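Morning F.,

Quick status update on the modeling queue. The single chain you submitted on Monday has been processed. Sequence for confirmation:
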Amino acid sequence: MRLPTTRAGAEMEIMTKETKPARRAPRAEANTPKNIAPEAEVMQVEDAYDFESVISGALDAAENEAESPAAAAKRVLKPEAESPKLHKVLAQAGLGSRLEIERWIGEGRITVNDELAHVGQRIQLGDNIKVDGKPVKVRIAPPAVRVLAYHKPVGEVVTLDDPQNRPTVFRRLPKLPVGKWQSVGRLDLNTEGLLLFTNSGALANSLMHPRFGLEREYAVRVLGALTKEEKQLLTTGVKLEDGEASFGSIEDGGGEGANVWYRVTISEGRHREVRRLFEAVGRAVSRLIRIRYGAMLLPRGLRRGAWMELDEKDVQALVSAAGVALPKPGKPSTQNTVRRASDRAGSRNKARVNAAEEERFLRARRSAKGGPKRTSNNNYQLPTTSSKPDPLKTSVGYIGSDSLARARAEQKRKPRGRR
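Structure tokens below.
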């Protein structure tokens, strides 16, 4: 799987490059979720769309022209594993037999989130369970980590409630059976492209934390070509109102007349940072599209305003690329407990282990000349030049370039009666 490197504007629609049609996965019904089969084809770099297709404004035309509107709107989340039943969880915690606990429920001795429980009730991670008014210790497996890739169009805000009643990205997302979606960063009203959502706060925080300096790649259209001096200034550092900022790299992307395209990378997520950097050298941005976030590429064929759920393979690749360790869905998590001294000691040991893992991760990033550098005062300094290989010119793999094609192929393989 490969990541593109640029961000085009509000009309950018994703399509596959016409090369190597034999390797392209068959088309399935539109943006339906997927489970990637182990034998699924892995898209090579040559198969990833090039920058010209990114800025053409017709990127998803070839992928979607055969789809009907009904098929395009058919987007469904993968089913969530059933939550455990209350009486089973309490019996496993050693409070009594299942029959005894069912009797206690009938007698009104058990509450869930301060409401009387009922026989057959299912519970989930985070529920506050009490027996005779006392909190009890239970173990519940956390829900699986889920990630959505969304192709944000111009005109939507990344907020749950907008005081100006503008359309929000959250209105298009499917409802989670457990938890809620968290956006990984933001895109402003007039910016479009890749926006990630996850139900895991740990993953979202790791992807956004400036300590890891995950690259974001954009396609930017500006009025007038940059001079050599302006490019140098933008990559070495420009003073903005909230501090110094710079691009990791700037590459020419073509264009016609006064409209010039550039491919830029940046390792921070400050408000309107890309636009403000260009404005600092007197260039107005007319279109802006995010193509990549860290290791995740905007899936080819994903139309503006549409989402797709990443399969387990892509989620694990994204988690690994972010350098985070998340609890496995099958491993229960303890909640509703009082921390003892031994618990606190265990937490300190875990913190030391996590710190060591973090240092190893950062050393690896520094050795590749692509990560943040630790300064003498123990802060992190982001690199001023990009060391990310160009995914359109190298064999480096990314996540997401063929995700939608594989989802469609998987959906098409399913018998009609099971859709």
